Write a sequence for this structure.
């Protein structure tokens, strides 16, 4: 790819990350929501049975298995949603079956990238937090890079670091604000579920499905935002038409 030639100030802003991610999510609301719920359901049901609703107090093996399942699910969702975001931004309507199958084809690379990122970010967060936040911002589009450009994890992280240079403050603002919104939303969901239990609604399977439906945006939107940022950065920096990015999946 060519070196960046366009002014960096015009690619993404704090506001466009939110607007773009939410606009894409609601443009195909049921696709993003139902794929998230269907993918997350096995892990959620396993956790509800093996951990009996107490993530912090269950057996160690069950916690490890639950984390492993959730990590694999998030990697698969990220790959599927990157493909969906690229197609959406190209103005191409793609059937759900093709979105899922073509996205899953990149899930392995996404999984390895996410695992390595999580290890380094966790270490960074332990080192006075700041290094971990810096890595979060640098590698914000590493998963889309691995899925679209079909690179290895270290190459994807390096490429992401290049693409996000000059934008990390805006990305950090997005991450922190989204975290605050997500935290408040999670509290509201917990209160709602507590109210349902108080009203004697205690069917574990229905409660799990309802919880997944309510929390689907908190899983889908971060992956969509990363895909949106990747497309905008690459197409603007290198003057590459979005359709060219979409052809990487052909």
């Amino acid at each position: 790819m060519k070196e960046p030639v366009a002014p960096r100030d015009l690619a993404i802003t704090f506001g466009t990350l939110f607007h773009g991610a939410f606009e894409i999510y609601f443009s195909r609301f049921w696709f993003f929501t139902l794929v998230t719920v269907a993918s997350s359901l096995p892990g959620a049901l396993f956790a509800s049975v093996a951990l009996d609703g107490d993530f912090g107090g269950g057996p160690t093996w069950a916690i490890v298995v639950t984390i492993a399942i959730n990590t694999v699910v998030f990697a698969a969702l990220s790959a599927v949603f990157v493909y969906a975001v690229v197609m959406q931004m190209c103005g191409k309507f793609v059937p759900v079956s093709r979105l899922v199958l073509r996205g899953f084809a990149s899930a392995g690379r996404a999984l390895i990238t996410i695992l390595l990122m999580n290890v380094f970010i966790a270490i960074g967060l332990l080192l006075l937090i700041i290094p971990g936040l810096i890595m979060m911002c640098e590698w914000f589009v590493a998963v889309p890079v691995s899925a679209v450009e079909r690179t290895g994890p270290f190459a994807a992280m390096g490429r992401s670091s290049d693409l996000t240079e000059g934008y990390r403050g805006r990305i950090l603002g997005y991450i922190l604000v989204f975290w605050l919104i997500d935290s408040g939303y999670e509290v509201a969901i917990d209160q709602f579920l507590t109210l349902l239990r108080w009203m004697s609604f205690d069917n574990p399977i229905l409660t799990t499905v309802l919880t997944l439906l309510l929390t689907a945006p908190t899983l889908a939107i971060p992956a969509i935002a990363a895909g949106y940022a990747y497309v905008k950065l690459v197409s603007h920096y290198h003057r590459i038409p979005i359709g060219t990015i979409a052809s990487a999946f052909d």
